[in-house]
């Protein structure tokens, strides 16, 4: 096993991306270097930072007011570490609280 292999699956006699799906979070720089490349959730950090700065600036420039909620959608970066869903299976991801439509959904 190479250092870049996804831990756990190979040790259990399984193949990541075929027998099991492995998904990471934050889309680290090394995600492409794993074997197989790691499917991950990418957070839009520049957009999050800009919005945080704008809200902070608004509070500094004016009288304190109630904070507002904002949904900044992450992005699913599909790589080779995820296995296809079994045929005929419907995968539905419920909408976050306050959202009008589901984030994603597909029929395999």
From TrEMBL:
Recite the UniProt keywords alphabetically: DNA-binding, Transcription, Transcription regulation
| Segments crossing the lipid bilayer | none
Transcriptional regulator LacI/GalR-like sensor domain boundaries: 9-82
Q: Could you identify this protein by its name?
A: Substrate-binding domain-containing protein
Return the annotated region ranges for Disordered: 86-108
> What Gene3D superfamilies does this protein map onto?
3.40.50.2300
